[in-house]
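Re: that backbone. Tokens:
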């Protein structure tokens, strides 16, 4: 069994939030500069607890100003959106230790002393697995598009769909109808796509409901403890 290493710098809650970051996750770096700070998005690479964090920094010409600002001791604020029961943005400040170009272009920073977080969802979501069929203008009329509601609140839900070549991605603000069976009857919930994310062979859609609240309360009462 792997040893669960604790931090002597961060609180257990802060370390738990930091551990939610997975190598390859997109992060926002705000780099201190003389005139105005510079913000860029890049990939988180990994960490050595209480020692350092690593981020990918491109060698392309567009990043030359950013690279020039990443001098030893300069401050960088890191932000990332995490998934979870409530959803949150975590943010922390670190200092540049070193920028290397070989064998890969990596930014090495200090380990954060404090993690700040801001909740994104006003309503806690329940984790569940309700099967639904989806109807949208982008999907073929002759196909049954089946997805799974993986979390749900009174305001919206997240639906997971298997990626298929003939199922185009629904863009943000697209309209969609979710159909599910309740006591042998088909119930339809209308919603709008607010975000989407591809992970391996699954695409996750964040949806906001725009239908009768009674329909949503019925779904909540049958499948969660939040109604």
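Recovered sequence:
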């Amino acid at each position: 069994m792997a040893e669960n290493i604790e931090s002597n710098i961060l609180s257990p809650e802060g370390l738990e939030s930091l551990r939610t970051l997975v190598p390859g996750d997109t992060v926002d770096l705000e780099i201190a500069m003389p005139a105005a700070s510079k913000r860029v998005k890049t990939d988180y690479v990994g960490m050595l607890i209480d020692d350092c964090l690593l981020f990918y920094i491109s060698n392309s010409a567009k990043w030359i100003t950013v690279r020039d600002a990443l001098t030893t001791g300069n401050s960088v604020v890191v932000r990332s959106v995490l998934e979870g029961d409530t959803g949150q943005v975590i943010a922390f400040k670190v200092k540049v230790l070193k920028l290397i170009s070989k064998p890969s272009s990596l930014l090495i920073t200090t380990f954060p002393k404090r993690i700040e977080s801001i909740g994104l969802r006003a309503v806690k979501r329940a984790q569940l697995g309700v099967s639904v069929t989806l109807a949208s203008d982008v999907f073929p009329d002759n196909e049954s598009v089946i997805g799974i509601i993986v979390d749900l609140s009174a305001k919206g839900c997240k639906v997971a769909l298997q990626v298929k070549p003939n199922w185009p991605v629904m863009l943000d603000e697209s309209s969609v109808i979710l159909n599910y069976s309740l006591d042998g009857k088909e119930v339809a919930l209308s919603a709008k796509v607010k975000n989407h994310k591809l992970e391996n062979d699954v695409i996750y859609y964040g949806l906001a409901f725009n239908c009768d609240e009674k329909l949503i309360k019925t779904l909540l009462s049958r499948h969660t403890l939040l109604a």
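The first strand starts at residue 26 and ends at 31. The two ends are 40 Å apart (CA to CA).
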